[in-house]
UniProtKB/TrEMBL annotation:
Keyword match Plastid: no
Protein name: Uncharacterized protein
PANTHER family found in the cross-reference section: DUF3176 DOMAIN-CONTAINING PROTEIN
Signal peptide (from-to): 1-19
Length: 660
């Protein structure tokens, strides 16, 4: 019983250790042995205790097995029981016999047989997961653009090439052309400031740390793109070259001809899109009205990808006509930093429209009819704007339903087609939720894109292979796609350009530096944490419970058969002292046992069963030798004086199972 109590104590100690370390960082462990080593050590001792108790049960069961047998049993079974108490193989060999006669023996043998799994089960219960924790002194921020005012981007001349008497500085032009020709350049990559390399940002929808890649965590002023296929408006016409080659044109006059040296791709800005109003949806038409540029592309392409330049037949060309609109917008992202890399996913976009702010007049349409002439717009320092909803300000979430609750709300009157009431009503909103684009800078950028970037003709002849010549507008050649341009490829190019320009805004192009142009989050570090899967401890504790039941059963039986059955367990002396108690099928005794010094009669049947204590006390003075091969002789002598022999038999107390 003491061994069982010890096993329970060891199990409790392991549970206490695991409970203490559960959901704690691995580096919180301060013991000189690591957790796995300590549990391995304790589980080994625990298994030894379990096996020892089970072995005692099996050992006692062998005597009960023979005592309770109604007929003589093979003496070999005695060896089976003894082997079962000493190892896994012996326990496994005993199972068939125990299953027929003794459920208790079967259970104990099974415990010995499966005890090897105790250690792995304890080890399996210990798991490790990586968890992050916030660094209180860490830094986490991502740049955004709240207000693009064109700061430090232009200068005044007598005759500016971009807009009136103003022109863009050289670096602005370079940034825009770089965004078009190399949109994925690392020079325009947005980087975060993240102390630990792992940062999260609060969701603008809940105010809590973002838990999903669909949560909006930042918004920024940017550029967006929409493209529409207007190929249905292309018509065939007879050109003036009299080449016999086919020519195609759009209602605007933009045309291409499939002939050497002719225009195979034409690009032009179309501020007025009334010629395509039959196929442009109303929602997009409203966006196109305030675009930087509405670019029309008419390009000849060949769908036969295996065709070589020499096989490039004029009659096999297909005209593709696309209108793409580049417009100012508000772009919302879900952002996080993992292992030092900023990951951003675009969640939504919304166009920016003129904001009249506190202007209360009702003649809005008249005043904006002449736009983009900035001077005709009412209000102070007009700008285009968009409201971000939801929006996070000082850990409080604001939406269109509670914008006015902000204490220092600004007047906002955005001329959006989606206005909920006529005449574009004015509302109040937190200034942090209002993203703006300065009208003057908008007009300069629009003029530059329309005249300086997206206008020109590209020629091709059979000597150029898959290349197209666009003169000084070389950057337009990428839209040619080596003769395989279509709506998808053209849209992709403009999307990449819009995203690249957005990054330039965030990095400082025309940015109002007086604004708080960052979004802040939490810097976190990842640590391995210990987690305990408690279900793996069911097996070890089940063994302990079964052994407890078996031991209680053994104790109860020894009390019931007190005086008839002795608690001999694994002791071998009963085989010598009570050999005469073994009777074969013919009723013959196997032979005399070792007589005790106190034995008064020679009748085998009259000798009472001795306890372990009696046998061990008597055996210490019995001297014997073992005869080899039956040829030697041995004399068994009792060297004790008769007066030192055992006292005459009397009722002895049972050996207690509580002993070791």
């Amino acid at each position: 019983m003491s061994a069982l109590v010890g096993g329970l104590g060891i199990f409790a100690a392991m549970v206490a250790v695991l409970a203490r370390q559960n959901n704690h960082a691995d580096d919180d462990w301060v013991f000189f042995l690591n957790l796995n080593s300590l549990i391995a050590l304790l589980s080994t001792v625990y298994r030894a205790v379990m096996v020892a108790v089970a072995a005692e049960v099996v050992s006692q069961s062998k005597w009960i097995y023979f005592w309770t047998s109604r007929s003589p049993i093979s003496l070999l079974r005695l060896q089976y029981f003894d082997s079962a108490s000493r190892g896994i193989w012996g326990a496994a060999r005993l199972l068939p016999y125990a299953a027929k006669r003794s459920p208790a023996t079967l259970a104990a043998a099974l415990i010995i047989a499966v005890s090897f799994a105790v250690g792995p089960f304890f080890q399996q219960s210990i798991g490790t997961v990586d968890r992050s924790f916030v660094l209180e002194d860490g830094t986490a921020s991502v740049p955004i653009a709240r207000n693009i005012n064109g700061s430090d981007t232009w200068y005044r001349t007598l005759a500016g090439p971009d807009y009136g008497m103003w022109a863009f500085k050289y670096d602005v032009r370079a940034s825009i052309l770089s965004a078009l020709s190399n949109p994925f350049s690392q020079d325009s990559a947005v980087s975060s400031k993240c102390t630990s390399g792992n940062c999260t940002f609060p969701s603008w929808e809940s105010g809590f740390p973002s838990q999903s890649e669909h949560d909006i965590t930042l918004a920024t002023v940017g550029m967006c793109n929409q493209c529409i296929d207007v190929g249905s408006l292309v018509t065939v016409y007879n050109n003036s070259l009299n080449t016999g080659s086919p020519s195609w044109k759009l209602p605007t006059g933009l045309n291409v001809t499939a002939f050497d040296g002719a225009n195979w791709m034409s690009v032009a800005e179309s501020r007025n899109l009334t010629w395509a109003e039959s196929i442009i949806p109303y929602e997009q038409a409203a966006t196109f009205r305030w675009a930087f540029a509405n670019i029309t592309m008419l390009v000849l392409s060949n769908s036969n990808s295996s065709q070589t330049a020499q096989d490039y037949r004029y009659q096999e060309q297909t005209p593709n006509a696309v209108v793409c609109s580049l417009y100012p917008c508000l772009r919302s992202y879900s952002a996080s930093v993992t292992n030092g890399k900023l990951d951003e996913k675009l969640i939504s976009t919304q166009p920016m429209y003129p904001d009249l702010m506190s202007y209360t007049g009702s003649d809005v349409e008249k005043n904006i009819s002449a736009f983009p002439e900035a001077g005709t717009l009412p209000g102070d320092e007009p700008h285009l704007a968009a409201l971000q909803s939801p929006c996070l300000v000082n850990e409080t979430v604001y939406t269109s339903s509670n914008f006015s609750a902000y204490s220092n709300a600004s007047d906002v009157r955005i001329l959006s087609p989606s206005a909920v009431a006529d005449n574009y009503p004015s509302i109040k909103a937190p200034p942090q939720c209002l993203f703006k684009f300065n009208t003057f800078f908008y007009l300069m950028l629009a003029s530059y894109l329309q005249a300086g970037v997206f206008s020109g003709n590209c020629k091709w002849d059979s000597r150029q292979g898959t290349n197209v010549y666009c003169a000084d507008k070389y950057w337009l050649a990428q839209f040619w796609e080596y003769r395989h341009a279509n709506l998808e490829t053209i849209t992709g190019r403009f999307d990449n350009f819009a995203e690249a320009v957005t990054r330039q805004f965030r990095l400082g192009l025309g940015l109002d530096q007086a604004q708080d142009n960052v979004v802040r989050g939490k810097s976190s570090r990842t640590k391995p944490f210990t987690v305990v899967n408690w279900k793996w401890l069911i097996f070890p504790i089940a063994l302990l419970a079964i052994e407890t039941v078996l031991l209680i059963w053994m104790i109860a039986r020894s009390l019931i058969y007190r005086g008839e059955e002795m608690v001999w367990k694994g002791n071998v002396l009963p085989l010598l002292y009570h050999r005469d108690k073994f009777v074969d099928a013919n009723g013959l005794h196997l032979g005399d046992g070792i007589p005790s010094h106190d034995q008064a009669d020679g009748l085998h049947g009259g000798q009472k069963l001795m306890t372990i204590a009696e046998m061990e006390n008597d055996a210490k003075d019995v001297r014997v030798t073992l005869i080899r091969n039956g040829n030697g002789t041995s004399e068994i002598g009792n060297v004790k004086d008769d007066k030192q022999s055992l006292r005459r038999r009397r009722d002895w107390d049972q050996d207690s199972l509580l002993g070791s």
